[in-house]
Amino acid sequence: MLVNYTNGLVNNLQDNHEAKPAASTAKDKDTKPNPNRYSGYVLAGAFVLCLIVVIVLVTVLGPTYPLFILEDVTVRSFNASAGTPLVTLTSHLDATISAGNPSRIHAIGYHGLRAYVEYQSQWITAPEVPLSPPDLYQSTASHRSTATWTPSFAGDAVRVSPALLQDLNAGVVNVTIHVKGRVRGIIGALKSAPWSLDVRCRASLPFGKLGAGVPVPGGGLKFALGKPCFNRG
Ligand SMILES: *[C@@H]1O[C@H](CO)[C@@H](O)[C@H](O)[C@H]1NC(C)=O
Ligand SMILES: *[C@@H]1O[C@H](CO)[C@@H](O)[C@H](O)[C@H]1NC(C)=O
């Protein structure tokens, strides 16, 4: 060993491989008393049990997404101004959005839910409208509880893609309602960390199709959709 150190870096490698393991095992044998085998097994068993519990909890409390459905959209007003080159839209839409919990194991906690409407990936209503209620506790699927929100969206002379004029001429306008917020899985007193929600509900509004929308009190056309939304983490 002494010789190796004096010879410098190259020999240090050799030194590590040969000398150290031998030294440490000898030391272990000398200083440590015989391990108590029984308590060793108990410790190992407890460790494995803890690991299983953690894995089960992580699996059970992991992100299971609520199922959102866009039930209907009522178009109160939808006025595009065809000024060239800018096209602007003044609109007022009411929607009914529901969410169910598909899990039989855990309840869902919703936090800070909010929504907005897009046309061709551009906001056409105020950036975000809080859903009422924004926070909600929903029990497991076995209780068949459904949460429902009826947000109202409005945009005033919002600049939009000129494609809107063609769509209006064709008689169908596709919009997307985004729902954002956070959700957690809950089992009794246990709560998972919240994960963020970005739900997209696509609505195809057939303005031009006679009878597709039902006139509602207060003015406007109600389109029944009942379409599942898409979840994205
Ligand atoms: C557009 O606005 C006018 C009033 O400015 C209103 O009478 C009309 O119903 C609106 N059209 C639509 C489709 O909302
Ligand atoms: C609007 O949505 C409908 C149904 O999803 C689809 O068939 C149609 O092609 C869409 N139109 C446009 C202009 O994107």
Give a quick set of tags describing it.
single chain; 233 residues; alpha+beta; Immunoglobulin-like; eight-stranded antiparallel β-sheet; six-stranded antiparallel β-sheet; 4 helices; 27% helix; elongated; disordered N terminus; binds 2-acetamido-2-deoxy-beta-D-glucopyranose
Topology summary:
Elements: H1 2-7, H2 9-31, H3 37-61, E1 67-81, E2 87-100, E3 107-119, E4 122-123, E5 129-130, E6 136-138, E7 146-149, E8 152-160, H4 163-170, E9 173-187, E10 190-191, E11 195-205, E12 214-215, E13 221-228, E14 230-232
Antiparallel strand pairs: 1-2, 1-13, 2-7, 2-8, 3-4, 3-5, 3-6, 3-9, 9-10, 9-11, 11-14, 12-13
One 2-acetamido-2-deoxy-beta-D-glucopyranose is lined by residues 77-79.
